[in-house]
Design brief:
Length: 322
């Protein structure tokens, strides 16, 4: 494929999706990420798109929201790994909130195997994934259906959440920065996400590395409200993602990094067989920003082998004390 044809295809993908990772662009145009990065730089110089951490977005600083069909095909391996790890933060018998999104839909498929759960959600896709789960109760909010992401939004959804209290909320979004926290491109979705957060004692954000450093129009969860971020390991060349993770950790966000199957250095481990651990990022030396190597070391520490029954009992007891 000639450079002109390749760049036209890249531009069409970004226009269709709002934001696309370099990894996904390279897969579609069937070339290396190095070549794609060069094409993205050329398109940015012409003002046709903007480069972001590990990807490209529409010009103007804020990405627009993609439809569900486009989102469902982006960063699929990363979302799978994140969902596998996130499921280990859910205990039998818990009451939790799960927001709308393709990553949370993946999480819901794994929650179907955990008995005794009560899952509150505004997402039809999350509810569908749990509809036939044994001993899992699904509570849906009211509201108006938003067809682009199959979520219930509006005052009905928000009012149905008043007075609710659960142990933790699992949310996704369109972008995540240390400065503004989690954000999304739709005002109605942002408002419902804020109501979901109010109902939870802890907030867990599920965001793959392409969303790190991406800022969208409506803030949903400020950084100081986020308890934990579950993400995948950024590519080795993505220094900005490592810097963003360090900034989030510096503000008190616990970082858990999952390996994505098929990605460089990543390995997805089946959920319920992972031993999870919150891993603090090492502080950078004075005058030196953290590089990708600091983040790369997190994956190995965050995902370990199967734990013994005694270790599991100790971990559960520790969580109850907290």
């Amino acid at each position: 494929m000639f450079a002109a044809e390749r760049r036209q295809l890249i531009l069409e993908m970004v226009r269709a999706n709002g934001a696309v990772s370099l990894r996904e662009l390279a897969r579609v145009v069937q070339t290396s990420e190095v070549t794609v990065r060069r094409d993205v730089r050329a398109l940015e110089a012409e003002g046709l798109l903007d480069r972001r951490h590990g990807g490209a977005v529409l010009p103007g600083g804020f990405t627009r929201e993609s439809g569900f069909p486009q989102k469902s095909h982006l960063a699929t391996a990363e979302k799978t790994a994140i969902a596998d790890l996130a499921a280990n933060f859910v205990e039998e018998g818990e009451a939790i909130v799960v927001g709308a999104g393709t990553t949370t839909q993946e999480l819901a498929r794994r929650l179907a195997r955990i008995p005794g759960l009560t899952v509150v959600t505004n997402s039809l896709l999350v509810a569908q994934a749990l509809a036939h789960a044994n001993r899992v109760e699904v509570v849906m909010t009211g509201g108006t259906l938003r067809g682009s992401n199959y979520a219930l939004v509006g005052s009905g959804a928000e009012q149905s959440l008043q007075g609710l209290r659960v142990s933790r909320a699992f949310l996704s979004g369109s972008g995540l920065t240390a400065e503004r926290g989690l954000s999304t491109s739709n005002m109605l979705s942002a408002s419902v996400d804020r109501a979901l957060v109010q109902a939870a004692a802890e907030v867990v954000v599920l965001a793959d590395h392409t969303k790190l450093g991406t800022d969208t129009m409506f803030q949903t969860v400020p950084t100081d409200v986020i308890t934990r971020l579950i993400t995948d390991e950024p590519p080795a060349h993505d220094d900005r993602a490592g810097t963003e993770l360090q900034a989030l950790a510096d503000q008190g966000v616990q970082i858990a990094v999952a390996g994505a199957s098929g990605s460089p250095g990543g390995e997805a481990v089946p959920a319920r067989r992972q031993q999870r651990r919150d891993v603090p990022l090492p502080a950078p030396r004075r005058g030196q920003m953290p590089g990708p190597g600091a983040v790369a070391g997190l994956r190995t520490a965050a995902v370990l082998g199967e734990q013994s029954p005694g270790a599991e009992r100790a971990r559960v007891a520790d969580m109850r004390r907290r």
